Amino acid sequence: MHEDSPLESGKWWHRWLLTPRELRARGVVGINMRNARYLLPNNPRKLYRLVDDKLQTKALAEAHGLSAPETYTVVRSPRDAARFESKLSAHPSFVIKPACGSGGKGVLVIDGRDDRGRYLKPSGAALTGDEVRHHLANILAGLFSLGGQRDNALVEYRVRPARVLTEISYQGAPDIRIVMLHGYPVMAMLRAATRESDGRANLHQGALGIGIDLATGLTIRAVHHGKPLFKHPDVDVDLIGIRMPGWGKILDIAVTCQEMTGLGYLGADIMIDETLGPLMIEVNARPGLAIQMANGVGLLRRLEPVVNQHALHPGVGHAEKIAFSQKHFAA
User: Is this structure's pTM higher than 0.85?
Assistant: First the structure.
């Protein structure tokens, strides 16, 4: 899944209110450095298909024993789209995703149905069956996919976030992004929905980026469109000092995402279900750079120590990688 945006394409530095020289001094990584120094040398092109297609990623996760949202059905043709409702009669809530979607586009969250049989989004907006079928047709046609190629639609369990997270998000379900290098967690953030983002945890659409301390799982800093804030703009709750439930398992899932894909540089996306606990949502081979603003730290200060550690100790195991990150990258 591709995540580059104007925020990362060269003119986003002004949001830090710093000059380019000051940004370099603080270790801020731009898109060119990310691609040349970390992404291209560590992510062979042949491996991209494993994460650019969510169906393949979920199959890998299952093979490695990772928990992920249950897949209800896969819509592969107009015929499947025409009869999708019969496959979901037992599931009033669900999420529709393009299997090869780009930048979070095309994701449709259905929270339930009203007494007229219409489908309700988290915002309360209602969609008819025909409107949902039209959305499925757009996915099949490749409207949201990488390169505009024909696609499949994945219909899966709608995560019910842990209560501590729903309290700091507007309607939508927050998710956690962990950026990894050589299997070491280097930076983490929570993405929380706002009224502006229409219940989606997508920073480009107006969601909040909330930095997380790798050592403790506590939220430490929050930004909205690059500007720091301490309270959610819509629900007026504190955003700092919130502990992520099951933080140890979350880090374990992130490291396993690297092991199962073989990618050296990646972003692991995880959600915390109230009942099921942490769930792997997807893996990103080109994670964006806004996570630096959410944490107030340049990625270079985290990535270079990992480069050195990996060169000196290439055979370090799963638990040791987590311990190294928690020791050296504590807030």
Answer: yes
